[in-house]
Automatic annotation (TrEMBL):
Fluoroacetyl-CoA-specific thioesterase-like domain span: 26-120
Species in which this protein is naturally found: freshwater metagenome
Protein name: Unannotated protein
InterPro entries xrefs: FlK, FlK-like_dom, HotDog_dom_sf
PANTHER family in alphabetical order: BLR0278 PROTEIN, THIOESTERASE DOMAIN-CONTAINING PROTEIN
């Protein structure tokens, strides 16, 4: 990562309008037409990547390690929600983000997310090798 001393404090934003297919009802994990929690995670991940994109070196990216998410309120179809993600700590290759999602002034989600910086090619090669070695022979 470049300019690591500037990375802590970097902020990113992301916006999403809830569509019918984004609901718990549509994806089969509930019976309410409210946004599915997985979309909250997608939105804060997008905001986090926006926050740090200028600090990543060529061939470098991040992957999700952990999310602690508090769903404070729910939103329905047609709602426009916006996420913020602020890089609050850097420990080696691990980044911590403080994340929030709002609909207008209404606070919907608070989350703490941890991501690991990885070199893209070696990470994908290692992942492919691990997946290949876990395959069972067809008999």
């Amino acid at each position: 990562m470049e300019r690591e001393n500037e990375l802590v404090g970097a902020v990113g934003f992301s916006v999403m309008t809830i569509r019918p297919g984004d609901t718990t009802l549509a994806i089969g994990i509930g019976d309410l037409p409210i946004v599915a929690t997985s979309y909250f995670v997608n939105l804060i991940e997008s905001a986090a990547l926006t926050a740090i994109s200028e600090f990543l070196e060529a061939g470098e990216t991040t992957r999700l390690l952990r999310v602690e998410l508090d769903a404070i309120d729910a939103v329905g179809i047609g709602a426009e929600i916006r996420a913020t993600a602020k890089c609050s700590a850097l420990n080696g290759r691990e980044l911590t983000f403080e994340c929030d999602i709002y609909e207008g002034e209404r606070h919907i989600v608070h989350a703490i997310m941890k991501r690991a910086a990885v070199e893209r090619v070696s990470f994908l090669a290692r992942t492919a090798a691990q997946s290949f070695s876990s395959l069972k022979p067809l008999n």
